[in-house]
Amino acid sequence: MIAQTHFLERISENHGVAIAVTGMLIVFAVLVLISAFIAALPKALERLGPLLPPETVRHGHAPPTRLQPSQRTPEALDKRVDEQLVAAIGVALHRKQAQ
User: Fold this and answer.
1) Tens of pLDDT, residues 69-95
2) Which pTM was predicted?
């Protein structure tokens, strides 16, 4: 019991509780800032969209192709991914049968 009392006295003498609380508040504040940044990022990128260069899609060794604005819709991108997936599966099956 005496050792525990001595331990608590040393913490209070050296402002240990205040330092711990300050550290926790700093960490909490930084986490809030990171969360706010992540929440604001989609809106900021949407506003910066016209200033950014157009997207490019690379297929193997072919030169990059630029996507037209009509190709940037989520539905069009999903269709491209589906077509690419079907093509990749077809190539894999063809190579498997060729072995």
Assistant:
1) 666 676 766 666 667 777 888 899 988
2) 0.44
What are the DSSP calls for the chain, one per residue? -HHHHHHHHHHHHTTHHHHHHHHHHHHHHHHHHHHHHHHHHHHHHHHHGGGSPPPEE--TTSPPEEPPGGGGSHHHHHHHHHHHHHHHHHHHHHHHHH-
Q: How far is CA 31 from CA 38, 47, 61, 68, 73, in A?
A: 11, 25, 42, 38, 33
Residue 76: CB atoms within 10 A of its CB come to: 14
Question: For residues 88 and 90, what is the distance between their CA atoms, to the nearest angstrom?
Answer: 5
Domain residue limits, the chain? 1-52, 57-99
Helix-helix angle 16-48:2-13, to 10 degrees? 50
Cα gap 48→36, rounded to integer Å: 18
Closest CA to 59 of 51, 67, 71: 67
- Rounded-to-integer distance, Cα 64 and Cα 56, Å: 6
